[in-house]
Amino acid sequence: MLRTLLRGAVLAGALVATQALPVLAAAPRQLYNKTIQINWTTGVAQTGPDGQTRNVSVAVSRTVYVSTAGRIFERASRSTRRGSKTSENAPGTTRNAGGEATALHFEGNRLVGNLAFAQGGRRFVATFDPGFSSCTVAVQYGREAGGIKRKGVDGVMYTIHSMTTSGESCSIREGNPFGN
Asked: Is residue 15 included in any domain, yes or no?
């Protein structure tokens, strides 16, 4: 019995380690000292704590810099007519300025960004061409049982009924946008 449990624990540990390998993948050398600019707009149907349902347009921007050492820096922002929020994330950051769990990593020729809302989450994948001179981006939202909940740029928690992404763009340029 103990041998079976131990074998199961070793197998589970190996599976977890295997799943974590893509997260530990190094940035492609072709992207060193490059800035990746990712933008999109999300149309959100949401209900606030006052019971009012509103349609909101959220402009989302991700500026990602891959340093000459292959480290990933990110400035993430979102804005609406009611305001904006920005988070500057150093390599290995696991929480953004709003306290949401975040992760940014490479999987081969793809840059993957995950963000956990209070309930539900978002994933974007930027895919690079073979020469790493251009990219495209796809955005997906996921919901848990009970739907999606997230704090708006105004700090209020909203229940989100739908999210529709449009205007996705991705570009690459030389240099560090953050100075130095």
From this structure: no
